[in-house]
Amino acid sequence: MVVIIVSIFAPNWVGNVNQPYHAGDTDISDDWNRDVKNLLREYSFDVADIDEDYTHLKGDTFDLRIYVSSEASQKEIDELNEFLKELRNLDKDSRYHIRIRVYPCYYEPGNNSSFVYTPRYTIEYDSSDRDIDIEESLYDDLDNGRRVPGHVPEELEDGNLLIVVR
C-alpha cells in the first residue's frame, strides 16, 4: 500500500524539485518594466523605446542601446547620465539584481553620417557614478574608433531599451 501511495506522489515531488521557480522572475520582470517606464517619463529623450515584454531570468542582462549625436548638448548628455544613475538606483535595495549592459554609439548626423560603436559596459547596483558616466565611454575611444555607416533607429530593433539623444 505504501509503495502505491509513494508511486502516485513521487513524480510530482521530483518534478517540483527539478522545475525552476518562475513566479519570482515574473514579479521582478513586471515591477522592473513598470519602474523603468516610470523613470523614462521623467526624461525628454528624442527616442525612448522599451521592450514591454522583457522577462528577467536570473543571470540575464538588460541591454540598453544608446545613440548620442555629435550635436547633442552638454545638458542632454548630463540628463542621460542622470537617467543612468537613476536606473542603477532602481536596484539599490538589491531586489532586482539586474545587470544593465550599455551599448553606446556616437554618431554624426547627416547624409554621410558615421557611427562609432564604443565599448559596451555594465551597470550593476554597486557601480560608481564614474563607472556609469556615458561620456567616459563615448569619448575615450572616439579618436581611435572605427567609423562605419549606419542608421539611427526610431524604435527598438535590438536589446531591451533604446535611447536616442540628438
Structure notes:
The protein is an alpha/beta fold and 166 residues long. The chain is 37% helix and 21% strand. It has five helices and six strands, in the order ααββαβββααβ. It has helices at residues 2-18, 23-40, 74-89, 129-132, 134-140; strands at 47-50, 61-69, 99-108, 114-117, 121-123, 161-165. Strands 1, 2, 3, 4, 5 and 6 form a six-stranded mixed β-sheet that branches. The longest helix is centred in the N-terminal third of the chain and has 18 residues, at 23-40. The relative contact order is 0.20.
Compute the CA-based radius of gyration. 21 Å
- Structural class determined from secondary elements: alpha/beta
Rounded average pLDDT: 83
Query: What proportion strand?
Result: 15-25%
Helix content: 25-40%
Low-confidence stretches are 10-23
What order do the helices and strands follow?
HHEEHEEEHHE
SS field, number of helical segments: 5
Q: How many β-strand runs?
A: 6
Q: Termini separation (Å)?
A: 74 Å
Shape: globular
Oligomer: single chain
Main beta-sheet annotation: 6 strands, mixed
Summarize the structure.
This protein is of the alpha/beta class and 166 residues long. It has 5 helices and 6 strands; from the N terminus they run ααββαβββααβ.
Layout of helices and strands:
Layout: H1 2-18, H2 23-40, E1 47-50, E2 61-69, H3 74-89, E3 99-108, E4 114-117, E5 121-123, H4 129-132, H5 134-140, E6 161-165
Parallel strand pairs: 2-3, 2-6
Antiparallel strand pairs: 1-6, 3-4, 3-5
